[in-house]
Each structure stands twice: as C-alpha cells, then as structure tokens.
Amino acid sequence: MAEKYNVKLELNKIFKLLENYCITEIGKNNLYNLHPSNNKLVVKHLLSETTQCHNLLLEHGNPPITNLSDYQKIIKIIESQLPLSCNNLLFVAHLLKTSKELKNYFSNVEDSSNYDLIECYFNNLYTNIDLENKIFKSILDDHTVSDEASTTLANLRRKKRNLESSIKENLNKFIHSSSYSKYIMDSIITIRNDRYVVPIKVEYKDNVKGFIHDISYSGSTVYIEPTSIFELNNQIHNMQIEENIEIDKILKELSESVFAVTSNLKSTLCSIGNIDLIFAKAKFSTTYDGIEPILNEEKFISLKDARHPLIDKKSVVPIDIEIGKKYNSLIITGPNTGGKTVTLKTVGLLCLMAYCGLHIPANENSSIFVFDNIFADIGDEQSIQESLSTFSSHMTNIIEIYNLATEKSLILVDELGSETDPVQGANLAISILEYFYNLGALSLATTHYQEIKNYALVTDGFENASSEFDIENLKPTYRLLVGVPGKSNA
After folding, report:
1. CA 229 to CA 326: how far, in whole Å?
2. Which of 282, 315, 344, 453 is most buried by a 10 A CB count?
3. What DSSP line would sit under 434-476, residue for residue?
C-alpha cells in the first residue's frame, strides 16, 4: 500500500504512539519497518498474534524485557571477531539474561496451545547460563574486569595492592620526617606518569634526591619520585603490564566464547524484537480498548462504535458505519468541522491499523475487508513550485487513483469536485463516483453539493449520510446519521 496514503490517514502518528510501548531499540526498528499488508492470511496471522499476546498480558503481566541499545553496532563488532570490550561483553550477558527470563516467563503458561502463534518467538530464544554467569562474574562494569575473572589476575592485583601499601607507608614517613617536611608543598601522595610522587616546593627541588615527573601550572611545585621508592614503583609498573596482559587474555577468551554463538545471539535479538513489538501492540490495544476485527470475504465494512484513536478518549464520539452490503458508495454531507473528514479518516485508519496487526478501537463484531489498496484524497496539496492549484492538486490525486484502483480497493475522497465552478464540480464528482462504483470499488466521499446528495437519493448502490447538527445550539454533535442527507449550515 502506497506510503503517501498511509500518511494522509495518519498511520505514522499511530506508529509514534505505538513506539512508546516498545522497550527495546530493535523492537522500535521492527515497528518502523512494519507496513500494512493486503494479504488476508498475513493480516489474520498478525491480528491473532496480537490477540494471543493480549491474553498472555492479562494472564501473566508484562514480560521481563529490558532495553538493549546499540545492538547493531555491537553485533557488527562481534561479527568482525575483534576482541570485545567490557561494555560489549556486558551487552551479551544482558541479552542472555533477558532471553533466559523471557523463556522462564513463557514456561509459566499453563496451556501453551493457547499461544501457538507466539510460542515460536519464545522457543527461538537462545540461553547459555554458563556464558552469562561467566561474563557477569568476570566483568564488574563497562570498564572494569573483576578480580574473580582469573586466579592469576587476583594474585597480581593482591601483590600490586601490597606494593602500593608499602609505597604509601614509605612516602608517609618521608612527608612527615623532620628532615624533609619543610620541603613539602602539601602533605599528600599523588601519581604522575603512573608513578607515585610527592609535591615539593620548587626552591627545594635540589634538596630531595629523586626524579622530577611534573611541575605545577603556577611553577611553584615540582612532583618528585624519591629514589627510596624507585624500585617499588618499577615493580608496580611491571606488575601493571602483567595485569594488562592477563586482562587482554581474559577478554580474548570471553570474546571467543561469544564468537562461537554469534548466530544464536542474532536470532535471539530478532526474537526479542518481535516479542517486544507484539507486546507493544497488545498494550496499545489495552489502552485504546481495541478489538480484533472480523475479516470478511464479502467486501464490506461494518464498524460499530468506531473511535478515531488520535482523538482524546474522553471527547471522541463513536460512529457506526457500514458500506459494501446494500450500497458501495456512501456520500457524507453536513456542516464544516462537523466530523465528515474524521469519518473518512476513521474508516481508512482503522483498516490500515488492522492490516498491521493492531486491534482497532471499536466494538466486538466489527468487520472489515482486506482491500488491495486504500486510496485517500484528503487535505489541500496546492503547490506554487509545481503550479498546482487546490483543484488541480485534487484532480492529480484523483487521476492517480483512477489509474490504480481496482474492484478490491477502498477509496476515500474529501470534498470531491470542490474549488471550482459548483455546477461543473458537482457533475465531475458524480462522474468520478459513478466510475468507482462501476469499477466495483467501495468509496466514501464528503461533499457540500446538493446535486451529489440528490444523485445518491435516486441511484442504486449509493447512499447518503450526514454529520448531525444541533440546530437549537448551533453546534455539530459529530454523530453520523446514515440514510439522511445533511445541510452545510454555513
């Protein structure tokens, strides 16, 4: 289905709302790769998935999904088989943990046959408790390898800490000794160039035997490594090299364990993305009181108490609308701002939502047909750059619909034939509607033209409807009255 018609009917705004219910980055990406299907079997499958997920949500609550950001970047690093950082490894561990918890969540289902359509996503999740635990045991945070990662690393760090204690003890004696205390700028021990040093007043730098590693910005302090700790600093430096080598070895071994299951991790990410999106649809259904519409083969639409999901639930006026049984073309008239265009958008948008597997805000027993395309000429697209007036822009859209529509299409046209001579516009609109009817397509059109209302009154296959207007209070009620032509009440 053409994207421009989806946008006219504001499916993109529904996706924006639905995004708020997605937890993972991959779930959101799956959402924006979602397109309405015109295959009835696919649509039925998608809707049934949402229904099963909705029931699972009611029975067991929210699934334990956690956000897995930067997954594309990390998967590329894993696929390149470059050694993984602590951050990358923690991502893998969190992925495995999420997978395990989702499997446990679904394992609590008493009768999995009730969820046969979504069970495959949970079955495709890969778990590896040994690898998960090993990573969590070995990596403390995004930058730190734990002492528990290996016995060698633990021993090296213990010896290093002992050496550091010896150095600090030595330097504390140096700082507080009667011989050197007068040379000290501050009674602190600090590090420069990975060496322990003490701050010495610059005028006394020749009175302290050692190596100058730095000088303060003001030039009043030099940082000296006393000769008494030179060998201890060397030992720490050598031990740091050994520690880095051991850390690289640990990261390499963990990375190789991850490389061995790359395909499993990718398929698990895919399944988590699918689970996340389907649950987002289910949560959306709960919020908007959605139902799974019946898909019919007879090419009709029957919506009961249909609500436009972008209008506030507290103020939206439900409509009942039916087309395709007794008549194939519905002409909607009534006052400006009375809800005529909203009716068109409600019908088109709810169909598109269903084709994406979303429940629709309507009452049970609402039924729709899976059209091969939904066309919409709604809104003003006049363009100075393209020399298109309002009328010619509408006619350009109508010509495209004329060329592409089939007997299995739904056509929604707002103010057909307007923005030109009223008599000529009305006659042109009648001709267009007659063509769509003879084609076999279903069409809904709004108009103010009396000629079109009269045509619908006397022509088989056409029906009038109107947006109700409260004459006493001079206000539209937004109720749709089928079978009754309306007045513009200008």
Report:
1. 99
2. 282
3. HHHHHHT-EEEEE---HHHHHHHHHSTTEEEEEEEEETTTTEE
Give which of 320, 298, 324, 301 is closest to 441, Cα–Cα: 324
Ramachandran quadrant class, 66 (left: phi over 0; alpha: psi -120 to 50; beta: rest):
beta
Q: How far apart are alpha carbons 445 and 460 in whole angstroms?
A: 16
Look at 40-49, 305-314, 328-337 and tell me which has the smallest mean pLDDT.
328-337
323, 325, 329, 332: CA torsion to nearest 10: -40
**433: its two tokens:** 């509607």
d(CA 39, CA 77): 38
d(CA 105, CA 45): 23
Q: Can you tell me the distance from the alpha carbon of 350 to that of 360, in angstroms, rounded to the nearest whole number?
A: 6
Contacts of 238 (CB under 8 A, 6+ apart): none
SS3 call for 417: coil
Sequence-distant (6+) residues with CB within 8 A of 316 are 307, 308
- Spatial neighbors of 417 by CB under 8 A, at least 6 apart, are 424, 425, 426, 427, 428, 429, 432, 447, 449, 452
Helix (H) or strand (E) holding 24: none
pLDDT score of 429 more than 90 = no
